[in-house]
Known about the structure:
Layout: H1 2-11, H2 48-51
Amino acid sequence: xxxxxxxxxxxxxxxxxxxxxxxxxxxxxxxPIELGGSGPVPTGACxxxxxxxxxxxxxxVYANA
Length: 65
């Protein structure tokens, strides 16, 4: 993910030659990819039971500043 974040910050695109192409999200498909992988995963593949009763956030990371 760090490689994709760096590419996005520098170029506006998270795609780099060494990793699989990450398609732009749309209104009908968010095009999720597996962290640490290069392939797509089905939307809703996250099992809420992994996190407890519910997933508190989807992709955002929050911290006290």
